[in-house]
Amino acid sequence: MKKQIARMYMLESVRNPGMAIGNILPAFLFMSISFFAKSVMTEESFEFLIKGQFLPISIIMLIFFFSFSSATIYLADMKANKTLQWVQRTGIKPHTYYIGMGIGVFTLLNLFLVLLLIGYSFIIDISLSSFILIILMSNFVLLALYPLSFILAGLFKNEKVATSMLVPIMLIFMFSIQMTSMFLTLAEKNPQDYFVFLIWNPMLYLFDSVQVSLNLMGETWLPQYQYFMILAVISLVLAAIAKKVYNSR
After folding, report:
1. CA-closest candidate to residue 37, choices 23, 48, 24
2. Residue 72 in contact with residue 149, Cβ under 8 Å?
3. CA distances from residue 58 to 33, 71, 89, 170, 177 in whole angstroms, order as listed
4. Following DSSP, what letter does each residue of 62-94 receive, concatenated?
5. Which of 10, 51, 133, 216 is buried most deeply by CB count within 10 Å?
6. pLDDT digit string (tens) for 128-170?
7. What is the pTM (predicted TM-score) of this model?
8. Which of residues 109 and 95 earns the better pLDDT score?
């Protein structure tokens, strides 16, 4: 049953060309721009731009689109069409549907994430250890954010409302990290000194890990094993809330 749920989600995600392209185009757009930027910038500036901004933004966009946009809109549409209520009446347990759909979400993310990193490897040097660490951290961040798709889908009336509301939510999560890091760096301050104010944002742990793995920073703000633990706890707490929201529909 879990495989069937995962297959159904993935087919629906790629069946709509506009949705599929919209989910992945922004992330790969930054990679495409990087090829042109390399020829007009100094090596030092280019390395900082790609490793400090473009690559992290591309990864964050992929995670957001698969954990928020695609999954939340899919669930909101199911709720609006009464499909979700029908699924609940079939006796499928909440954790079965949660895990089944999660398999689809994680499969799609990792497929495009690997392609993205391979593309960036033609632009900058990405070691195998960094490649693996980035994928691992990205999956833990997705694990923490994935339950929010069930919670938010329960709050939104339909997929149109979900689409309009998800944009500002994504911008808050994304730019609270990106802008803070960029402006503090330009001001010659260490962004990590201010990370304590952003501990609520799972993207913080991904952004910090990516920069360290690409040798832009000497060490992470907290030990990376603590990042994995924090993200796992966030996932469990949000999953418990998501279960209640799912059962209430």
Report:
1. 48
2. yes
3. 11, 18, 39, 13, 13
4. HHHIIIIIIHHHHHHHHHHTTHHHHHHHTT--H
5. 51
6. 999 999 999 999 999 998 888 888 877 777 667 776 777 788 8
7. 0.87
8. 109
